[in-house]
Fold these 4 entries.
Entry 1:
Amino acid sequence: MSLKVAIVGCGQIADGHLEQLQKLGTARVTAVCDREPLMAEQLASRYGIPRFYADFDELLERERPDVVHVTTPPQSHRALALRAMDCGCHVYVEKPFAPTTADARAILEHADKLGRKITIGYTYAYDPPAVDLMEMVAKGLVGEPLHVESFYGYDLQGSYGTAIFGKPGHWVHDLPGALLRNNIDHLLNKITPFMPDERPAIQAMGWVRRERRYGDRRDAAHDELRVVLRGEKVSAYATFSAHARPVAHFVRVYGTKNTVHADFVSRTVTLGRGSRLPSAIGRLAIGFAQALEQLRAATRNAARFARSEFQFFAGLERLMTLYYRSILEGTPPPIPHRDILRVSEWADRIIGQLAGSSDDP
Amino acid sequence: MKLLVTGSNGFLGAALVRRLCERGERRVVRCLHRPGSDLGRLAAVRAAHPDARLELLVGDLTSPEDCARAIEDVDLVYHGAAALRGAAADMFLNTVVASRNLLEAVVGAARPIRVVLVSSFAVYGMAGVAEGATVTEETPLEPHPERRDLYSHVKRRQEQLFWEYRERHGLPLTVLRPGVIYGPSGPAMSNRVGLSLFGVFLHLGRRNLLPLTYVDNCADALVAAAESPAAVGEVYNVVDDDLPTARQYLERYRREVEPQRVLSLPLFATRLMSRAVAWYHQHSRGQLPAIFTPYKTDSMWRSFRYDNRKLKSIGWRPAVETGEGLRRTFASLRASRGSGR
């Protein structure tokens, strides 16, 4: 059985959604919508979608979709998600879920009330390294997690960075926390699985490192962020950097037994163990053991490549598969509401601290 | 009255502003540029022509208000602004949506505004044209822009939009379709010559003629079109005389700018490779991008002839000969490489 799907918001990320939806087998996209009809038209024409709309209500009325993917700027997520749920749709909301936790809560409560399934686009949490990492932790290879390092590097010259800084009117600059708020979910949603706390202690610092060249509000967007979080049993560092090179993206979990490093760029997951051999021999052996870990991870990737499983949007595909399965089988959606809310609340607190801080070191 | 140049700090836009200065344009030339953009090219024009009546205006065509401001007191628009790269949504936004906003402002103005659009050769449906045929203004437009490339798709839709406005509002429009625009500070290598891949230059154009137009000649074509009453409602291809082949271009480039490791592929090999790449893209569910497909190959790397007689009929002549244009271009490329830029 396949579900009837519509996409609202025909910007850059909608391409990724369409590409994966067309591979899924359990979804058929019948229409796309953007309040700018030329944007809706271009997306429909590039992906062979039968119809496009500039009016969301008209789309809901005529298409009667089972699922709506909301890929508009977050400022409109609440209104669109609620409207779609009222028309009987399940809703996939892109990150950031909503500009504030109050909006996020309103969406989730509405879903609970009407029995609709909601997910958020935490795609990296479903990328192969994240999946492998969670498996290793579940097997007890790490022991008890003590500390998590979540690092998200960003390229201001990349396609998103260029679009965001191309215009002072870009919606990212309207978000509280601007560029940081648009990316912070990627940092925090890799910490929440290890930190069950509702309200960890949080210390955040953010600043602008690049040269201020625009003379408008784009210059104010922080491009570096450091956060320390401390829960009851687990602590964490979260780093966002637009300047560290190479652009890194990883999560590192320090456990009572071993430390595991999941790298989202190379898509390798490696376990750091201490040596069992004594003195200089032990120190010598560790290097080889580490090299072997890397080799094993790289070989695994090569095998995935050979099986055509080394896809750019692997995480998006997996998340969508799980989400659509939850709809078809009537099981809970893959991401618990509580985690969506915790990420949102922590993000609000972090951005709130930055708003009051000075840029001076 | 004033005239407006959009994309005025671009490669062609700045050359157009400079040519207008050199020709002693009497109207104020309003140069629209995006907020925060680097104005190096326009600054150089201004420095060379301190007495020219240039008016720099900050604005973004994706804003209807900025479009309305841009066309105030204007009786002629040269629309050269377009996205050359970026994600698909961004390219459509900055080229097609931007054009629609500009067109709305133009047709909403109290007086008629003459519009000259910089379109592109990329709008022609070359895959359906017989090898060796001459590309004219009558050559059919790309029927499958989605199979070609993003730039073609975007430019095709943009041009269609202008014709729609001409039909609906009687817009006094002329469309120019330049081939490959080249010149100092422009791009070094057209894809029609080949592509750099893993440190090797894949030479795919070989004996095909390159539809070059020197940036100043192309700017002159825009002016000729704007000044000719006969050009209203017409399309003109813009290519120079004495076109070199891709091989001649590459050989000169290697001699005068930098040596390159080159792998030269004949058309049948490029086609085979395209088929393999397209097959793998399909088979692997998009694990590697389909940078080559038979459709793209047939559009880009087959041999055609080019014709500029229609453009010459409104008085245009290429002021800079191709040999001299190449000499200037390669000298500038060599200098910028030498200075580490």
Entry 2:
Amino acid sequence: MIDDDYTNSTREGATKQTTTAPKRTQPEPPQNNLCAFVVQKITAMKGSIALAVALGSLEASTGFGIFRCQKMNSVKSHLHSSIISDAPSSINDELLVPLRSINRRKLIRTLLQAAIPGVAIMSSPKASEAACLSGDTSTECIGVYKLPLDDAVESFIDTPEHLAKMAPGESKSLKNTLSIVEPESYLKYQLYFHITEQQYRSKMGPTSPVPEKL
Amino acid sequence: MQSKLISTIEMVQQGNLSGAGVELLAIVPRVTLAGRVVIQTLQNKGDLSMKAMRTETAYLELLSSLGSCDIVIGQGLAGRLGSITVAQIQVLEELRSADQEFKELFKALPEDFEG
């Protein structure tokens, strides 16, 4: 009988809520089913609770900033008053205890902030494939940024010694990059683009050395 | 160099994106260095300064187009362009654009100039 009354009252409460919902009025608590009403309220307040939990966790992760500021201010004022009143040093030590704990918390937070990116970087030691030297014809360099061969870069890669010093382990790039030779003159450029080897010899002379093709 | 680009187009048509990418990697630095020599030579001649400007513009456009080809081939190899046919179409479009830029560069160069 008790169970039947409970289910009946729940049904009544449910029907009452559905009929009052279109009127946008606050649902009244059922007389004999307070538990169901509380559950409904909690369900309605789920968003607020989640927000409060999120704010709380954020505050905890930032070291309870507001509380810390209040504590710091109180400690500072106590210290100031104690110094003025020439209080015994034992009182000053007692007052400094919370200040030390705050400093320790700050230190731990700083260490954690520095350690998290470090761990993230160290945990995936893969090559980033961020850039290649211009002239490197390995397939890994397709679609990857190429370091332009301008005057600013040339001094670092002009000799095998320089490149080995600046980019150790890039032996293949070293070979390919150094095999590209800048044409010495416009005519030699034309050899590569416009005229044939015979035309070049006819202009420069039959015995003139033909430059190596680019 | 333009003939090499045309051979690259043929490679892409056959579906060899990797070979086309490697060929393009060999073309780009050579064009960069040769173009620099040409522009310096033209700039040193006072009466060809306008030609030098036009050539430099065409040269930069060509380098940009070749770089774009390189990136699209890289995306195609990484599978970011979908199926191989779609990748081929996009790469061919970029390569033809680069070929057109080559022609523009040759048009911008002065005729019968030996430096």
Entry 3:
Amino acid sequence: MSKKLKALIIGPGNIGTDLLMKMQRSKWIEPVWMVGIDESSEGLKRARDMGIKTCATGVDGVLPHIEEDDIRIAFDATSAYVHAENSRKLNALGVIMIDLTPAAIGPFCVPPVNLQAHTQELALNVNMVTCGGQATIPMVAAVSQIQAVSYGEIIATVSSRSAGPGTRLNIDEFTRTTACAIESVGGAAQGKAIIVINPAEPPLIMRDTVHCLTESEPDQAAITQSVLDMIENVQQYVPGYRLKNGPVFDGNRVSIFLEVEGLGDFLPKYSGNLDIMTAAGLKTAETFALEAHAGNIQLPVRQSGVLT
Amino acid sequence: MNLSNKNVTLHDMSLRDGMHAKRHQISLDQMVSVASALDDAGMPMIEVTHGDGLGGASVNYGFPAHSDEEYLQAVIPKMKQARVSALLLPGIGTVDHLRMAKDCGVSSIRVATHCTEADVAEQHIGLSARLGMDTVGFLMMAHMISAEQLLEQAKLMVSYGANCIYCTDSAGYMLPDEVRKKISILRESLSTDIEVGFHGHHNMGMAIANSLEAIDAGASRIDGSVAGLGAGAGNTPLEILVAVLDRMQAIHNINLYKIMELSFNKSC
């Protein structure tokens, strides 16, 4: 039996396509299906050209093939509006759902902070927060692991070209979801998120600023080491994740300045914001596969299509 | 230029844009006293929030002396005729802040985006319009794009529900010719029930001249600030604009001597 877990991607847009390209290099995940809703879409055509089975009738169209193709992982790169239904249908067939939409019906997952906990309890739906959250919450956690953070604030700056219509239409989802995860995953008592969409040409690489206010005087040496260690953890799946400056200490304020360069798979390298989402999503799936292969978790048992 | 008998609605920024100059530290007493004096002078609209709008309180933009809610709740009950507006920048503030502002009695929401990014404002403009509020689309740094591109973004904001569009010279970079071109294209291309506004800054000392040009080209709302208190080099100084509008016999309903006195007292 192959150690790879078979996967499907819902949503053949920028994220879905970038994810597919990264997945084709994965040792642990094998892309099998790309699901869309428009037969003539560029995204489905690209997937077919890459040798992937496609379905243009939404998730319903692929349900009959889940068992025969032994699909274990699904990535939803559609919208918050349809995610809940997609997740319910696929979970019922024992497919683990990795949610790249702002729906957040499952627990937030930021791989270097809490992925291990989700794999151990075999969460059937995990949400990847937001691009800004993936880029910054590891840093908030790096500080809060050393000492209590009363307030965590992040400012994500992304190029105008890399902010798609979904992000723009739901910009409040970005600020709300990110702020919420700064608290629940990052460990800050209060979270605040700001997004700046910058139209400069040529497009800027994603930049992120993280400010943490610690309850007591920051232990500079311990926090600096924790931040550097966390940077390395993120770099394992996002090689272009870099500390540009900091941590800078000013009273109880700890400031960290980051840059996220993408791999340039489907979107140009400045789109680190999209890369860090797809890379984190794939890392999450790979960890499920690795744990299942090692026998640490038992994937849902399949009998006649419906789990009991 | 003949502005005789032209109607113009002036909008004071000193308690919002002026927050930048005061590092967001204006006290509640100062807010109420300035707003009351503006109200008494006949100022029809007054903006009150953090300098970066609702939800601006942050390490990045500065923590204010009081929350937006506290400022609004202190000022609004004291107003006899002035309407209070709040600024909202999508990406910083959310529709939750918008609802809070409405509950505090704010009747005008100004949704501000960079001049090329109007499509981040759909949620906020839409909700404000549905709540029946005066809803303004506020296109910032408007010097960076052509008049035609500005119009394209303005049309997006109108399609979301804005009843007024501002050409905002955030950096005080525009010269009168450019103001005329941009205000004219907005006025000529948007339907007549959509108001057009101009927000000037005084970096090149052109804010008064630019505001007059805007009124002549069809703008019916003009932003300014008593004593010019505002970000960077300051906003269009309102007491001077009022004096010039008096000389030109434009209609604005503001008492020149009262606003001069406020400006004098505030500067001391």
Entry 4:
Amino acid sequence: MAQYADIVEIAAPDQAQAGDRMDITVRIKNTYSSPIGIMVGGALEYGVSPWPGIAFPDPSTNVDAGVTHSFSGYFTMPDRKVTIHAYSYYYGADGSWHFDDEMTKVIDLAAVPDSEFGSIEIIGYARR
Amino acid sequence: MGGVYVPSQFGILFLPLAAVQVEPGDTLRVSCRYSHIGKAENVSLYAAVGNSGTFGFDEVLHGSRTISLPEDTSWNWHEGYVDIAITTAISAGVYDLYAKINGVIPRVISPTLHDVVEVLAETPESEFGEISITDYLKV
């Protein structure tokens, strides 16, 4: 249970194909009675060590009391099922970031579709 | 005359393609570009020379070649070629050209390029018509 920075949702597709850019949103609610600084972090668990991070271009901001802020992040889908770990931190009176909450979401690897062709065109012809 | 449409800053441009001249014994190499998505597979790239008409394409000569496609998780362009042997089965004249992937029931078929292959008459065997003396002198 989060103390001040409650992760309420990880918005991401349920499945994706390897190599896809995955845009995700982590929604974090300030449950404190006044504005606080909240920071988001994330990592990907799929069998490699250390866990690769998730890029969040704007990872921290001040959030008013009772307000939920959406943090946008992205990563490249690996070649297997991945578990997203999202973390929240709050900025304490001691001037440090404090870990607060964690949420996970699994993204399955989408099956490759059957072979299909879009179009074909002749781009050259020459006597050999 | 066949041609290709290419995008430009002025819209779509039509670039006419010059005819290639071939004669029996030659090989015509047809280069193609095609878009693919999905699992890897081996398919047949096929091209034919003939005459395009109201009732379809009347093929005179064709060639095919097996190509190996990789797995494409998104639409990707690939290029490949197929050779057509020019034989005496085709008579002199100007012909059309098209290509497709997989034979009898095509998976995808190209636009026809009109009048792009000119087949020249076969060069005859060595033969003499006549001979005459043009000069004579003491050496």
